[in-house]
Amino acid sequence: MKRMRRRLFPLLFSASLLAACAGTPDRSVGFGGAWLVDGALQTQAATPVSDRSAMPPRIAIALGGGGLRGYAHIGVLQALKDAGIHPDLVVGTSIGSIIGAAYASGASPDQLWQQASSMRVRSLVDVTLSGPGFVKGEALAHWGNILVGQQTIEHFPVQFAAVSTDIERSLPYVITRGDAGEALRASAAIPGVFLPVQSTGHVFVDGGVTSLVPVYAARALGADVVIAVDIYCHGPRYPSNSAVSMLLRVSQMQSCQLSLPEAASADVLIAPAITPAGIDDAEGRETARRLGYEAVAAALPALRATMRRHGAAD
After folding, report:
1. Would 116 be classed as within a structural domain?
2. Whether the predicted pLDDT of 267 surpasses 90
3. Which of 77, 122, 204, 262 has the maximal Cβ count within 10 Å?
4. 8 within some domain
5. Domain with 117 in it: what CATH number?
6. Strand pairing of 225-229 and 268-270?
7. CA separation for the pair 275, 258 (Å, rounded)
8. Which residues sit opposite 178 in a β-bridge?
9. 167: closest CA among 190, 184, 140?
10. 138-147 and 95-104 helices cross at what angle (nearest 10)?
11. Where are the active-site residues found (predicted)?
12. Domain tally for the chain?
């Protein structure tokens, strides 16, 4: 029985990562932001978007969710760097928030790849036997703060936002300040796997529930040109030969249908066809990274034309 549990747990955890409140203690986590309602940020403490009519166009990259497909995001950032394109704003959902935070905090894409290549995903699995999930997420938050050099979000060299979901309001919540590790935890809290993150009466789960590819948040934060990266909806579909795979396939179909209008509203959509890497699959990681890089290379003429049309430096 013990051996069966040891084999079953990594399988369930991997499957849940690839797909993407009662019972959790209320606690004050150190992040803040605003709800996204009809394309605008709404909260008493929202950061206002200044009048940008006389300012150079701002380029944003919106990194979408997709679990272990996220290695492709590193390839995307490497290709943009090689092309001399440096985003002014980084917005991420779920795995996109993790990669995006590390990049916005000052790490180069090559440094990100070195970190990702040596990362042990299982080290982030802090198991709990109570509540609406079986991973606490505290290890993820701790690791996230190490990843960004213990900086708070507002002190990143590049403006950054992580998108989570307020499950009570059914709205995206755009985190723009405070504890980066807790923000990443809230953005990547896959329902049914990670415990929800509670703060001041609000319950937060994975941002992919409401904003799989966070283009609208990037616009609300003042982006003029949005480069969106969808790593989830254009690759192979899950098979339908078992109960688990059928559930994953339906979840993927629903998520992609809901996210389609938002992703399509980007100025440029990068959508590599990614097969998710396994937890210990070094070859799969490299393949995802390469496909992300190649997708940017293919889209580069359209991207440069879009930037010129908006008056951005080429």
Report:
1. yes
2. yes
3. 77
4. no
5. 3.40.1090.10
6. parallel
7. 21
8. 31
9. 190
10. 30
11. 94 (nucleophile), 206 (proton acceptor)
12. 1
**Is 43 a member of any domain?**
no
Amino acid, single-letter form, for residue 41 = L
Which among 16, 105, 179, 206 is annotated as catalytic? 206
The reported pLDDT for the residue numbered 314 is: 57
Tens digit of each residue's pLDDT (9 = 90 or more) over 150-209: 999 999 999 999 999 999 999 999 999 999 999 999 999 999 999 999 877 799 999 999
| Amino acid 15: pLDDT | 40
What secondary structure, in 3-state letters, does the chain show? CHHHHHHHHHHHHHHHHHHCCCCCCCCCCCEEEEEEECCEEECCCCCCCCCCCCCCCCEEEEECCCHHHHHHHHHHHHHHHHCCCCCCEEEEECHHHHHHHHHHCCCCHHHHHHHHHHCCHHHHCCECCCCCCCECCHHHHHHHHHHCCCCEHHHCCCEEEEEEEECCCCEEEEEEEEEHHHHHHHHCCCCCCECCEEECCEEEEEHHHCCCCCHHHHHHCCCCEEEEECCCCCCCCCCCCCHHHHHHHHHHHHHHHHHHHHHHCCCEEECCCCCCCCCCCHHHHHHHHHHHHHHHHHHHHHHHHHHHHCCCCC
pTM (2 d.p.): 0.87
pLDDT at residue number 46: 43
pLDDT at 53 over 60: no
Give domain status of residue 1, yes or no.
no
Stretch 107-126: mean pLDDT: 90
Could you say which of 14, 94, 187, 211 is catalytic?
94
Q: Is 178 left (phi over 0), alpha (psi -120 to 50) or beta?
A: left
Q: For the ranges 192-196, 210-214, 277-281, which has the lowest average pLDDT?
A: 277-281
The mean predicted confidence, pLDDT, of the chain is 87
206 counts as catalytic: yes
Residue 246 lies in domain: 54-310
Give the closest residue to 178 by CA, choosing from 1, 44, 33, 285: 33
| 251 included as an active-site residue | no
φ, ψ for residue 145 (rounded to 5)? -70, -35
